[in-house]
Amino acid sequence: MQRKLRYYGDPILRQKAKPVTDFNEAYLKQLIAEMDEIMQKNDGMGLAAPQVGDLLRVFIFRPVIEVSPRQWELGPLEIYINPTLSNPSEELWVIEEGCLSIPKLQVPVERPLAITIEAYDLEGKPFQKSADGILARAYMHENDHLNGVLTIDRTTKRARQQIDNALRKIKAKYS
Fold first, then answer.
1. Is 1 part of any domain?
2. Which one, out of 12, 56, 84, 170, has a CA that is 20 to 30 A from the CA of 146?
3. What letters, b where the CB count within 10 A reaches 16 and e where it falls short, cover 11-41?
């Protein structure tokens, strides 16, 4: 594995990713395989390409599936290339979000309850799906990474102030 997880303070996390124009299957498969390995190694369920240092509009996601009462596992890998979000619900909700690039910190983030996502699969075929709840939130979170936006940009000023010291420590540790 050549790529590594990028952390708060890495300038690549603040850059806007570029659309995939060449669906080079070998390159994309390698990128996605490494992203999936990094995501699972760090106990994540979603990861965007900028989080591993690649400025392409790609994110992956593994939905959480309940296999028995109080027992969960990650589901099959979902790949989103050049995603666009539309039709956000008027209904909003706030819950705490964590991020692999900002370890051990969670902040309250307000987002629409539902969203529509359009993207391309690994073969370059377009698809669309509607999502609500945690799934919609995850898509919005990962899509934010493709635009250089972090959860800390979407929280309240007060919540941000409360974690400023922790953010400085993360930046110092991983810079």
1. no
2. 170
3. ebbeeebeebeeeeeeebeebbebbbebbee
